[in-house]
Specification:
Number of domains: 1
Number of strands: 0
Strand content: under 5%
Distance between the termini: 131 Å
Largest sheet: none
Length: about 120
């Protein structure tokens, strides 16, 4: 009778232990699955963030490239205008020098004025 009681008690203990073990393993599997889902979501968020950052970088790079190109065009245009203005001033100065009478008061004054320049043309400009 005592042994039968011990066997029942042992069986009951084993059943309880198995039941606890099964609950623990089931809970652990659910947590593992939940963690895997979180890892997958986290990985997906990281991929989306990386994709967004790449897109922002490309957009910024394209904008900077466009701005650089516009700046270069503006510089080229300003340089062309400066050269055109210089040519026009040079032509006007050459014409003025051709018509200048060196023996006139204006011619005498210009000779003194032009002495501090590298050439009479530069002084006339």
């Amino acid at each position: 009778k005592s042994q039968s009681l011990d066997n029942k008690s042992s069986d009951l203990r084993d059943d309880l232990l198995n039941n606890i073990k099964n609950k623990y393993q089931s809970k652990k599997q659910k947590e593992s699955h939940s963690n895997q889902i979180q890892v997958n979501l986290s990985s997906e968020k990281s991929q989306n963030l990386l994709s967004d950052l790449k897109h922002q970088y490309q957009t910024k790079k394209q904008s900077q490239s466009k701005n650089l190109q516009q700046n270069q065009e503006e510089i080229r245009y300003a340089e062309q205008k400066r050269q055109q203005k210089r040519k026009l001033l040079t032509r006007k100065a050459e014409t003025w020098l051709e018509n200048l009478d060196p023996s006139s008061d204006e011619g005498f004054w210009f000779e003194e004025f032009a002495a501090s320049y590298s050439s009479k043309l530069e002084a006339a400009i």
